[in-house]
């Protein structure tokens, strides 16, 4: 009548803790959430994400879901999409949203790069290493409304203006017949230089290492 | 050696007979007679208090065990995975995000940074959202000697295991057969007596007798579950010509409410055993059973309900507007159908005590029979029922607003979270209209229409702004 939960300190949890940096109790809670979302299955599919009502209201929901199924985010130097993910991959993607520990500056820099890489991957859907105008436009389309609030071309013009800005920032002055391929990762980094993403793009996981007495 | 075995067999038979006689006598005296007469010896409450003491002891043993091994007990943290900040409006959040880089918000300038915001929000929803966790059982802080709710199995000492083993024996060997017998008796009596009553010509006699019979059989069923119910504010009990609405956790809700008063049930016609019970019940009192095809026809449903309500001699109708079972930590959207009928609504809040057994019926996980067996092998079903003062629809209030008002009252009384989400999301997906709303909101901010900034982006979550809830009603309506 009901399964007994597995105890922490299991070998695979130790492994995960090292790879992702989550604590044991955080891993345990996340595992429970994984099981809830996957209806006690071993893997999560895209459909499982689609059943979360809160997520359905998010304009870039499909990009976020794709990010979970993108091998580039699994830190294993793979590429391309997968159809289903196991708990380990789920944790890997989640770990992109951890706040950096208030330690050395070098770690902050690498964490920053990681998070920006995550966002970059989200835009760069064909995985060629650059965000082209088309890809950028697609993301803006998702973000903006399809209704009467904006005209059809506003999204397009916003995307064009943004690309122009990026081009001028990174390339300086361009010859008239030079064609701007797309935003590379280095340009992307330069563009968001002043932006402290390592502070802004974090999910605040609650501290669960100390036993809490609810009630 | 036949001469030796025969006396032993006789002895065995005699012992068995004595045992059964004693058992049946105890059953009749202590359970059936009080059920029939409607009195209570207080045995169940004594049982409840004893159990609580044992549970406390069990929990403290586990804590001691954990301390000895220098490890931590797993405590389901009620704050959730994420330490959420107070909800702010979309515009404020975007401003904050933009604050460090220099970007004027006066022009419709698209910033890459906005994506970060939605990304983070999206991941937060994946980790912890208000809705999916309502469709699975609540977790307990202490252990109630049931394997199914134990998360700290490693910390159990020998003494505790022995007690747990005893518990299993008692629950499955003693309580379960007893309860099953009672349940069968109760349902059997209900079917037989109501059918018999159907033959009586005199309508009024039939009516008053049927009330008594229904109450008696429900009392037996309540004892079959060892349900210990506390009714509050009985002066507000539903009266004839009204509708009683309540939050829905399990099919047992019906028995719990019918234990204290007579209601007309509403439901679909089933086949098999359920169908037989339904047909028997309707012979002696006016219940409303719909054919499967009729359920889709909203006007027909509304008409039959209205006709029933208009007749003041008929009992109040019992309806569960959520439409599905929720895990008793929250109240989800009430479907407006029952609130469109012009009559008094009597709200009732039911709250189960999770320490004695989890009453929530997770219909995707197990079927009805398994659920009933689970219920009958738990320690008890302890719950509180509050009868709230009757409510009427006010001038200028539409059905949806009225439904929300009633829902808020029930949630407040029962200590449940008041959610605006539809319980139907258990099985269905959110409509695209929702996604478009969010996109609309974002584009307005982008275009600098700052007065719209009042629309907090969490409007679809907690019931903070009633006017926005109304605007949200259309996408969330399932009917």
TrEMBL record, chain A:
Keyword field: Calcium, Cell membrane, Cell projection, Cytoplasm, Differentiation, Lipoprotein, Membrane, Metal-binding, Myristate, Nucleus, Protein kinase inhibitor
Pfam family, one: EF-hand_1
Keyword Lipoprotein: yes
Primary localization class, coarse: other
GO CC field: cytoplasm; lamellipodium; nucleus; ruffle membrane
One term of GO molecular function: calcium ion binding
GO biological process, one term: cell differentiation
Subcellular locations according to the entry: Cell projection, Lamellipodium; Cell projection, Ruffle membrane; Cytoplasm; Membrane
Domain spans labelled EF-hand: 111-146
Membrane topology of this protein: Lipid-anchor
Keyword Transcription regulation: no
Family assignment from sequence similarity: Belongs to the calcineurin regulatory subunit family. CHP subfamily.
Name under which the protein is recorded: Calcineurin B homologous protein 3
UniProt organism field: Dissostichus eleginoides (Patagonian toothfish)
UniProtKB/TrEMBL annotation, chain B:
Gene Ontology BP terms: phospholipid biosynthetic process; triglyceride biosynthetic process
A GO MF label: glycerol-3-phosphate O-acyltransferase activity
Keywords, ordered alphabetically: Acyltransferase, Lipid biosynthesis, Lipid metabolism, Membrane, Phospholipid biosynthesis, Phospholipid metabolism, Transferase, Transmembrane, Transmembrane helix
TM stretches of this protein: 20-43, 156-174, 180-200
Domain of life from the UniProt record: Eukaryota
SMART domains: PlsC
Species of the source: Dissostichus eleginoides (Patagonian toothfish)
All residue ranges annotated as the Phospholipid/glycerol acyltransferase domain in the record: 242-353
Family in the record: Belongs to the 1-acyl-sn-glycerol-3-phosphate acyltransferase family.
GO CC entries: endoplasmic reticulum; membrane
Pathway noted in the entry: Phospholipid metabolism; Lipid metabolism
Region named Disordered: 446-479
The protein, known as: Glycerol-3-phosphate acyltransferase 4
Places the protein is found: Membrane
């Amino acid at each position: 009548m009901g399964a007994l939960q597995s105890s922490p300190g299991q070998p695979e949890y130790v492994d995960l803790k090292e790879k992702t940096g989550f604590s044991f109790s955080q891993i345990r809670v996340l595992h429970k959430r994984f099981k809830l979302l996957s209806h006690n299955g071993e893997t999560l599919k895209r459909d499982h994400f689609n059943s979360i009502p809160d997520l359905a209201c998010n304009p870039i929901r499909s990009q976020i879901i794709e990010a979970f199924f993108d091998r580039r985010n699994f830190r294993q130097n793979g590429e391309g999409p997968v159809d289903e993910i196991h708990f380990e991959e789920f944790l890997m993607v989640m770990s992109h949203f951890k706040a950096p520990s208030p330690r050395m500056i070098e770690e902050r820099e690498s964490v920053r790069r990681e998070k920006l890489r995550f966002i970059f991957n989200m835009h760069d859907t064909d995985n060629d290493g650059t965000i082209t105008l088309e890809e950028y436009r697609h993301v803006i389309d998702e973000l903006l409304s399809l209704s009467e609030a904006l005209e059809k071309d506003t999204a397009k013009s916003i995307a064009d203006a943004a690309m122009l800005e990026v081009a001028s920032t990174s390339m300086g002055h361009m010859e008239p017949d030079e064609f701007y391929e797309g935003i590379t990762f280095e340009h992307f980094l330069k563009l968001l230089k002043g932006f402290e993403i390592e502070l802004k793009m974090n999910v605040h996981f609650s501290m669960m290492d100390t036993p809490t007495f609810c009630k | 050696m036949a001469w030796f075995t025969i006396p032993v067999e006789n002895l065995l038979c005699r012992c068995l007979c004595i045992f059964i006689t004693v058992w049946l006598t105890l059953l009749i005296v202590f359970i059936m007679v009080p059920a029939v007469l409607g009195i209570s010896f207080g045995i169940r409450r004594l049982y409840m208090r004893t159990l609580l003491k044992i549970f406390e002891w069990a929990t403290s043993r586990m804590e001691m065990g954990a301390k000895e091994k220098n490890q931590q007990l797993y405590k389901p943290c009620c704050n959730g995975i994420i330490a959420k900040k107070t909800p702010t409006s979309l515009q404020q959040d975007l401003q904050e995000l933009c604050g460090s880089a220099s970007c004027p918000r006066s022009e419709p300038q698209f910033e890459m940074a906005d994506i970060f915001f939605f990304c983070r929000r999206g991941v937060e929803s994946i980790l912890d959202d208000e809705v999916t966790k309502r469709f699975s059982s609540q977790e307990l802080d202490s252990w109630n000697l049931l394997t199914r709710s134990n998360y700290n199995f490693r910390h159990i000492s020998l003494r505790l295991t022995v007690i747990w083993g005893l518990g299993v024996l008692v629950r499955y060997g003693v309580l379960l057969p007893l309860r099953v017998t009672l349940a069968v008796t109760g349902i059997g009596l209900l079917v037989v007596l109501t059918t018999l009553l159907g033959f009586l010509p005199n309508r009024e006699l039939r009516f008053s007798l049927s009330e008594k019979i229904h109450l008696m059989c429900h009392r037996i069923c309540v004892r079959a579950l060892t349900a210990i119910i506390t009714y509050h504010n009985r002066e507000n009990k539903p009266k004839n010509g009204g509708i009683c609405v309540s939050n829905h956790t399990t099919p047992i809700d019906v028995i719990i409410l019918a234990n204290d008063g007579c209601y007309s049930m509403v439901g679909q016609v089933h086949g098999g055993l359920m169908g037989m019970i339904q047909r028997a019940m309707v012979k002696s009192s006016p219940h409303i059973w719909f054919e499967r095809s009729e359920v889709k026809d909203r006007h027909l449903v509304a008409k039959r309900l209205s006709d029933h309500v208009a007749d003041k001699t008929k009992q109040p109708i019992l309806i569960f507007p959520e439409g599905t079972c929720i895990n008793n930590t929250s109240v989800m959207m009430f479907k407006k159908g029952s609130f469109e009928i012009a009559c008094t609504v009597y709200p009732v809040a039911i709250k189960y005590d999770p320490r004695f057994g989890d009453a929530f019926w997770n219909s995707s996980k197990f079927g009805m029979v398994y659920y009933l067996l689970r219920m009958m092998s738990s320690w008890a079903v302890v719950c509180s029922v509050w009868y709230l003062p009757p409510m009427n629809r006010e001038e200028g209030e539409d059905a949806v607003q009225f439904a929300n008002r009633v829902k808020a009252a029930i949630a407040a009384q029962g200590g449940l979270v008041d959610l605006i989400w539809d319980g139907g999301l258990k099985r269905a997906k959110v409509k695209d209209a929702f996604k478009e709303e969010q996109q609309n909101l974002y584009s307005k901010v982008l275009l600098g229409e700052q007065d719209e900034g009042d629309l907090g982006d969490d409007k679809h979550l907690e019931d903070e702004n009633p006017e926005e809830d109304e605007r949200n009603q259309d996408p969330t309506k399932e009917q």
